[in-house]
Structures are given as C-alpha cells and as structure tokens.
Amino acid sequence: MISSSPMRRARRPVRAAVAIAVTGGLAVTGVIMSTGSATAQADTLGAAAAQSDRYFGAAVAEQFLGEAEYASTLNAEFTSVVAENSMKWDATEPNPGQFNFSGGDQIVAHAQANGQAVRGHTLVWHAQQPGWTGGLYGDDLRNAMINHITETAGHYAGQISSWDVVNEAFEEDGSRRQSNLQIEMGDTWIEEAFVAADAADPD
C-alpha cells in the first residue's frame, strides 16, 4: 500500500523525487534525469523525462492495479511499464503448448488506457523457466524456446514498444552464462531467439 506522503513527494520538483527508487512496489526501471532548472519545472517524473526525450518506467504486478493509490501513482508519474513477472516463460506457458497471458494482458490493457508504453519482459531467461523445460535437451529445448517466443511475441504483436528478448545471457566478465540454454543449444541460441522474436513481431 502506498502512503499519502510518498505520493505528495512524488509531485514535487524532480530534485525531491529522484531519490525514490521504489514506491509501494512500483520498481523504477526508467531513466532518472539530472536535476537542472529545466527539469525542476516538470509536474511529474514522466514529464521530466520527456523533456530530454526519455521515458520514466516502473515494473508492475497486475494484482496491485486494483489498489487506488498504487494505480494513481503509476498513472500520474510513469510513462512506461514493464511486467514484473507475468510475461516470463513460467507465467505464460506453465505447461507445454498451454499459454496463459492473463496477467500480461491486464498490464497491457491498463497501460493502453493510460497512454503508457509497455516493455516486454522477458522472452528467454535462464531463470523462471517452467519446470517442464528442465527435461528438454538439444533440439527439443530449441523447438520449445522458438515456439514460446513465437506464441508470446505474436500474442502481443503491435502492443509492445520493445522486448527484452534474451535476459542476462552473459556473466559479469563477459563470458556466456552456462545455463541450460547455452549448454543444450550452443552459441547459436541467442541469435535464434532474436530471429524468432523479429519474425513474430517485426515492429
């Protein structure tokens, strides 16, 4: 639950609001600008971002959209949203070939109703895979990945401003993460994921 005091602070000039990293579960994922005199005149964080052709985004969970203060802050301050978990593989395809887009659909509908862009997160990741992928190897895993990307990106075609197609595929030192995706599919899997996403939603 968001208290009234953070909401009041968020409406003050940007220099007072930039310190807020998380407000009532709205995880900030957009870009925070410098606090010069031009941005200080903006009424909202989203408006401040727009002054330098940027967006201000938040990771959101659909179960909180019905909470008045959560939704009010989200709608007033943010110009972009990203699903916290509801577009990930385990949420969208809990069983092979059986898709559930209800959580992501709620976020997209809310964003569209409030003039917000939607960033898709994420089509392929070494974490939060459904349990059934653990028993797939080689081409079976490749085919499952491509089908998942095709169905998910295709479902949201035209509604997503950008996708995190592949998430955290590399280690801090720049080496490839030795995930099941890397081990089972080799060095081509990242390119294949992007090709599949582009085919499903070229825009």
Please name the defining characteristics of this protein:
alpha/beta, 10 helices, 14% strand, globular, 203 residues, disordered N terminus, six-stranded mixed β-sheet
Q: What does this protein structure show overall?
A:
The protein is an alpha/beta fold and 203 residues long. The protein has helices spanning 4-10, 14-17, 37-40, 45-50, 68-77, 89-92, 102-113, 138-155, 180-185, 189-200, and strands at 22-23, 26-28, 57-60, 80-83, 117-125, 162-167. It has a six-stranded mixed β-sheet with strand order 1-2-3-4-5-6. The longest helix is centred in the C-terminal third of the chain and has 18 residues, at 138-155. It is globular. Residues 1-24 and 31-39 have low confidence and may be disordered.
Helix-strand category: alpha/beta
- Helix content estimate: 40-55%
Shape call: globular
* Ends distance: 36 Å
Major sheet size, sense and barrel closure: 6 strands, mixed
Helix count, DSSP H or I runs of 4 or more residues: 10
Task: Outline the low-pLDDT stretches.
Answer: 1-24, 31-39
Question: For the largest beta sheet, what order do the strands appear in spatially?
Answer: 1-2-3-4-5-6
Tell me the quaternary state. Answer: single chain
Overall pLDDT level:
85
The fraction of residues assigned to DSSP E strands is: 5-15%
State the total count of DSSP E strands.
6
- Radius of gyration from CA coordinates: 19 Å
List the SSEs and their pairings.
Layout (H helix, E strand, L loop, with lengths): L3 H7 L3 H4 L4 E2 L2 E3 L8 H4 L4 H6 L6 E4 L7 H10 L2 E4 L5 H4 L9 H12 L3 E9 L12 H18 L6 E6 L12 H6 L3 H12 L3
